[in-house]
């Protein structure tokens, strides 16, 4: 298996422009958006503005498995995941996923 090459400097919400195009076209079907969402206020704005119905995260749960509870309790304004992709590099190198 070849080595994975991953970007680590992505704009927060890098799939939002696509979501703005897709959401009106799918009618009542709920849309989940994924893509570097890190700040709680940004996630809330995406939902409030109707850009998407749900925000999906992956890497933040590897670093902070309890992040949703911390957000709900108002204990954090952003996830601490910096999108360095070391967690995914581990998978590509047959190592356990960890931050």
Compact description:
With 99 residues, the protein is mainly alpha-helical. It is built from five helices and two strands.
What does this structure look like?
The protein is mainly alpha-helical and 99 residues long. The chain has one domain (16-92). It has 5 helices and 2 strands, in the order H-E-H-E-H-H-H. The chain has a two-stranded parallel ribbon with strand order 1-2. It starts with 15 loop residues before the first helix and ends in a 7-residue tail after the last helix. Mean pLDDT is 88; it is low at 4-8.
Strand-pairing-aware structural class: mainly alpha
* Number of distinct helices: 5
The Cα radius of gyration reads 15 Å
Q: Major sheet, described briefly?
A: 2 strands, parallel
Report how far apart the termini are.
Answer: 22 Å
Could you spell the SSE succession in H and E letters?
Answer: HEHEHHH
Helix % is 25-40%
Strand order of the largest sheet: 1-2
Strand content: 5-15%
Extract low-pLDDT stretches. Answer: 4-8
């Amino acid at each position: 298996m070849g080595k994975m090459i991953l970007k680590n400097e992505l704009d927060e919400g890098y799939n939002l422009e696509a979501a703005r195009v897709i959401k009106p076209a799918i009618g009542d079907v709920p849309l989940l958006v994924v893509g570097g969402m890190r700040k709680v206020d940004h996630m809330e704005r995406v939902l409030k503005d109707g850009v998407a119905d749900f925000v999906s995260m992956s890497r933040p749960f590897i670093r902070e498995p309890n992040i949703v509870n911390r957000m709900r309790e108002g204990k954090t304004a952003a996830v601490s995941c910096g999108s360095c992709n070391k967690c995914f590099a581990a998978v590509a190198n047959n190592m356990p996923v960890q931050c």
